[in-house]
Write a structure and sequence with these properties.
By secondary structure, the protein is an alpha+beta fold. Helices cover 28% and strands 27% of the residues. The chain has one domain (8-110). It has 3 helices and 8 strands. A hairpin with a 5-residue loop joins strand 2 and strand 3 (21-25).
Length: 113
């Protein structure tokens, strides 16, 4: 169990009841802590959200999302999170990148005088 929910591990991805995909990096990379001793880093967890979850989170339509990702479209946003392709027809977004983009939009709107 991760985060108190029943989850399963399949091909490096952990699924849960919220239909989020969580990628768990099980490789413990060694790094130096400054004292010359190597230490193990904790496993890294990346949470993916689907297009449906993204649209709900940012309160925009699917077509707006595709327009924001299209460099040829006038509404293109070069800072919009890039999708991650999982399979031939599936795209997901990294939750932390989406939240960072949302926060940057909030910050930009509040700095306008």
């Amino acid at each position: 169990m991760i985060n108190g929910k029943n989850e399963y591990l399949k091909n490096g991805f952990v699924g849960n009841d919220d239909s989020k995909l969580v990628y768990v990096n099980l490789l413990n990379h060694e790094s130096c802590d400054g004292s010359g001793r190597a230490r193990k880093n904790p496993p890294m967890e990346i949470v993916f959200i689907s297009m449906k979850q993204l649209v709900k989170k940012i309160s925009k339509s699917r077509s707006w999302v595709y327009a924001a990702m299209d460099e040829k479209n006038p509404t293109y946003d070069k800072f919009f999170p890039k999708p991650v392709r999982i399979g031939r027809r599936s795209i997901f977004f990294v939750l932390s990148e989406v939240e960072f983009w949302l926060q940057s939009r909030i910050d930009a709107s509040r700095s306008i005088q």
